[in-house]
């Protein structure tokens, strides 16, 4: 049975060590890859994404008992992943590596700029890299909700469960995020 | 939502929600009617669809092959509580820091085989997980000696001497100035604390937090003000934080002081906003007094807050007297520079008495010395230098209350503070005075004002928010110089002080910044914390600012910029505590030219 279905309350899922192990293995099998990809797009660093993924599943294992009939497994594991990523970003203070993306050929008066100009950087990068760069220009909460919506195909209700927001707040946040992403993609030459 | 040309609103939120089918029947009908007649929203819908297509098409990357094993090892290893859940030590001094370091060391040892080899990991601070990807540096929250947090290209370490700001080489590329004689300086890239303000929202209350820079943990929560903080300064002993907040749309600022240990918060007064000269806050070297200026119905006057007894009094009763900064007094005691604004400004150095003094009256009251033509001398943390202004001043508006700005020939200067024995009679003769901007021609139309701050190292300084009234002194194809959105960074040992080449990279600031609100310079003289304000849609929209940590690089290496704190809302200003060995002592002998 896919773990995306709500678990029975007080069922065999975690009442015994064996059940716990089985439940967790299924959780890992189903969600390790999408969680890793979500985190990779959040932090744009494979090593960090791997670390945060590891922390996420360790926390999930320790908190399996908090899964109830009413909770969605998917929202639950993404909430753990999101909060773990936020903690990581706060600790590392590397929310937006702006120097990598904030420069433009017209802003280099201070010193000779031997780095490739923005056009060369854009042409040389893959589409994936350019979309990732655009994502990194976004505020973290905008990046989160956009990835949950467009990468993970979550509904506003599900996004709200993950981010702790109301349905209305998610709709508003998504609209703002799309607006910010539109601008960011334009800076990467991907949209008008 | 934005406004449509017809005067109504573009239903952008409905456009966004329509991508995922999250509209009610009524909303869908409303959107369909609007789209039939609105090209703006038709284009918006098309771009949102393309955006969603691009994101959903991102390449799927398999997770690391050893992720399962790593998770299993982490679960099996158990491990101590994450480091951020351990007791936080605040202002605990060296002893407390040693305890904290020991706790951290024990936790690191308990992490077991799940840790990656040190050689594979960037050393950027302790990690909370059983499998950290970083080597703990031993840094711990609190005030006092700490190891710096290296940035990817940084080479600073705990024993590093301060790196002077770059000076331009023959090709115009800044190169490091000669390093002064090595004196151990506590180098800490991240600010000691910063302020984070969340205005009132439908779902939440206003909040003003003091946040520890290294850990991101809340030090104390303050009474929320009516507007964001725009200036802050930490007392030399780190016990008090003085700050200034905007009063909504009123055009005034409030001055506050808070004791960080217990969160005691003292409102000190309200003043006109809009002039950098009215935002000057200064702590005495012994951390007892805070000097500041209030412009109100009574005029512009200097005030003094005494942390010893909580008294808060005006110390002048004239029309246009500004509190500048404290200066070390030979043999003990505290001296304070006051400046009288006028067509010919003049500054007075006075003694700060132990009890409430009668108001100082310029030209009447006793003073230790005077400096004719000098306005607002800001003495460096070590007392060796001062940055001040010269030029004719004019009140911004006729009648009280009003602030004063430089009207003709205004420019900042750097000079050495003379030793006591060098003072001739009443006049304080600052030595080796040089224009701060060495490549600017100061004519009649020059600076009206600018913000100036010394670095925690006592040698470096930053200038920003420069109000230049003259024509830009740059080539037509170049960026204007000076520019209010640029931050100019140098140090006293740089023979050129500030030139156009000393501006931080324009790319250091994100697009759309409306104003650089505050700059603080770390003791390593290589890192700056910038508070940058973004424009808002008007009075109904919450103010927004980001706090950026800039690593100033030299030559062709671009500056590195990090954003501190992931929070929305307003983050900043940030403050650095002066290293204890840089606190003002007796004045040093003036160096020979």
Mean pLDDT across all amino acids of chain A: 76
**What sequence of helices (H) and strands (E) makes up the elements of chain A?**
HHHHHHHHH
User: Total strand count of chain B, please?
Assistant: 29
Please tell me what the overall shape of chain B is.
globular
In which range does the helix fraction of chain B lie?
Answer: 10-25%
How confident overall, as mean pLDDT of chain B?
76
Principal-axes geometry of chain A comes out as globular
Class based on secondary structure composition and strand pairing of chain B: mainly beta
| Percent in helix of chain A | 55-70%
Cα(first) to Cα(last) distance of chain A is 45 Å
How many strands, which pairing sense, and closed or not: the largest β-sheet of chain B? 4 strands, antiparallel
Number of strands of chain A: 0
Which assembly state applies to the chains in this document?
heterodimer
Integer-rounded radius of gyration of chain A: 19 Å
Q: Overview of this structure, please?
A:
Chain A is mostly helical and 192 residues long. Chain A is built from nine helices and no strands. In chain A, helix 1 packs across helix 3, helix 2 crosses helix 3 and helix 6 crosses helix 9. In chain B, the strands form eight sheets. Chain B has a four-stranded antiparallel sheet with strand order 5-4-3-29, with no helix packed on it. In chain B, strands 6-7-8-9 form a four-stranded antiparallel sheet, with no helix packed on it. Chain B has a four-stranded antiparallel sheet with strand order 10-11-12-13, with no helix packed on it. Chain B is mainly β and 593 residues long. At the A-B interface, helix 1, helix 2, helix 3, helix 6 and helix 7 of A face helix 1, helix 3, helix 4 and strand 28 of B.
